[in-house]
Design a protein that fits this description.
The protein is mainly alpha-helical. 79% of the residues lie in helices and 3% in strands. It has a two-stranded antiparallel ribbon with strand order 1-4. A two-stranded antiparallel ribbon has the order 2-3.
Length: 483
């Protein structure tokens, strides 16, 4: 169900909106966790390391696609906040056209560069065959990932963060069943793990399309809407490309980390892969708050409520820091037992290294929480430069730490690359948002609120009419003057 983000107590609105996003992030990580557990248990540590060695390369292109589609949804959210249905439809059409173009490019080009890219990353020879197969199948199924991300983004843009969660949950259950079938029963190897994820995501795309067709007429694109204006396409690219490049820049940093890990051996790769899977579950909460703030800021900007944006971002930052402290304690205290669930007995070195990485990251979650909230707010307001530059800062910090500290301290030096990258990004984001915060304070508050049943008197002719007078109700925007 669509939910307006332009009314209600800001922190409550953001929290309620972010809960389905959090659950969706956790479910999405369950895709990867299911693959990791099944591959590690059935195929062994080498296969687990092979799948892990593909993570940064997949994120380089698929992360770009995720950021791109999320950016395409920002104009949709702004049009929704302004209650402009025609603009919503034009935004959906423009985003769909651009998503399709990018999908074709990734599907055709990415599988061809998979093997050379893995070799350039110094992937160990014993992992190359399985890593190449897993990467190529994942890229060939990019259409499912692209369109599920885009459909989910535009559904969330109109305030509905629950429905994508339902479809993602169904897809996750199917993924777990398929990976057990393909890997555990049919013995398809790592190819089966990749194929299971592609098929499960394809089902989620079909579910989204059917839901939009039946329940969301505001997203139904008309024939004239497909003739997207150049300005509409330009605006979507202005917001989508920087978010996509930001993700890719961050991914390049993770590739340099992967290269440093590959020189440390299979156990280091397996430890980093396992710790990253566990770490991603904790990060999901903070990432959900950031995405919620982005949609919240976009809708309230369209509704001309800068006062709500200021309050909402401040309150969301407090929520993020409090959650980060709790999550950090959890990882520090319980990280080792959780790692053993993934790798089983007899892998003490992997457990020790992975737990050390979880301790380092857990102690710095507060930085990450502030990073997600502030960057989400700037993106929702339509700012593109600073969020993109922060990606470059993360790249520089992560690369320097992986190369320099990795050479001096080994695995733990590489593990320090994440907190240092977060610190560098936050140092740039805070001054930028302070400036935006002050500009919001100077903007005029001109609220547009929707009432569920606003009375409209309709007076007909006094004679010769079937209806002399009537009262109908309709959800129309009402401007309420405030002191």
């Amino acid at each position: 169900m669509a939910r307006s983000l332009i009314t209600g107590t800001p922190w409550r609105v953001i929290l309620l909106y972010s809960v389905p996003l959090l659950l969706g992030n956790i479910v999405q990580q369950a895709y990867q966790i299911a693959d990791t557990i099944v591959v590690g248990r059935y195929l062994g540590v080498d296969s687990l390391a092979a799948v892990g060695a593909t993570g940064s390369l997949l994120f380089l292109l698929l992360g770009f696609a995720w950021g791109l589609t999320s950016g395409f949804a920002i104009p949709t959210a702004q049009a929704c906040g302004a209650q402009d249905d025609a603009a919503v439809r034009r935004s959906v059409a423009a985003g769909t056209i651009l998503t399709a173009i990018v999908t074709v490019i990734i599907t055709v080009a990415a599988p061809l560069i998979a093997a050379p890219a893995l070799a350039l990353m110094q992937t160990p020879a014993e992992l190359m065959d399985e890593a190449t197969v897993f990467t190529q199948i994942s890229f060939l199924g990019a259409a499912a990932m692209m369109f599920f991300n885009y459909l989910s983004a535009i559904i969330r843009a109109i305030g509905d963060s629950r429905t994508p969660l339902v479809f993602l949950t169904v897809s996750c259950v199917l993924n777990i069943a398929l990976v057990l079938l393909f890997v555990g029963v049919l013995d398809f190897g790592v190819a089966g793990a990749a194929l299971a994820t592609v098929l499960a995501q394809s089902v989620s795309v079909l579910l989204c399309l059917d839901y939009v067709r039946r329940r969301l007429p505001v997203l139904h694109v008309r024939r004239e809407d497909w003739r997207a204006a150049r300005d509409d396409l330009r605006e979507h690219l202005r917001l989508g490309l920087p978010m996509g490049f930001q993700a890719s820049i961050i991914a390049i940093g993770t590739i340099t980390v992967q290269v440093a890990l590959n020189t440390l051996g299979t156990e280091a790769v397996a430890a980093y892969t396992t710790a990253s899977r566990i770490d991603s579950l904790a990060i999901a909460l903070l990432q959900s708050l950031g995405l919620a703030v982005s949609m919240y800021a976009a809708q309230n900007l369209g509704a001309r409520r800068p006062d709500r944006i200021r309050r909402g971002v401040s309150q969301a930052t407090g929520l993020a820091v409090a959650a980060a402290v709790l999550l950090g304690l959890f990882m520090i205290l319980l990280g080792a037992p959780i790692v053993r669930v993934f790798v089983g007995d007899g892998a003490d070195t992997v457990v020790e290294l992975a737990h050390g990485m979880l301790i380092i990251n857990g102690a710095a979650y507060s930085l990450l929480g502030v990073l997600f909230v502030i960057r989400g707010a700037l993106q929702g307001l339509g700012h593109t430069l600073i969020p993109t530059v922060t990606g470059i800062v993360e790249l520089v910090m992560r690369t320097a730490a992986a190369v320099v500290l990795g050479g001096l301290m080994g695995f733990m030096g590489v593990a320090l690359s994440n907190p240092l990258a977060w610190l560098g990004a936050v140092a740039l984001l805070i001054p930028s948002y302070v400036s935006a915060h002050r500009k919001l304070a100077t903007m005029r508050v001109d609220p547009r609120e929707v009432t569920p049943t606003t009375t409209i008197p309709v007076i007909g002719p006094t004679d010769g009419s079937m209806v002399v007078d009537a009262v109908v109700t309709s959800p129309i925007p009402v401007i309420r003057r405030r002191r």
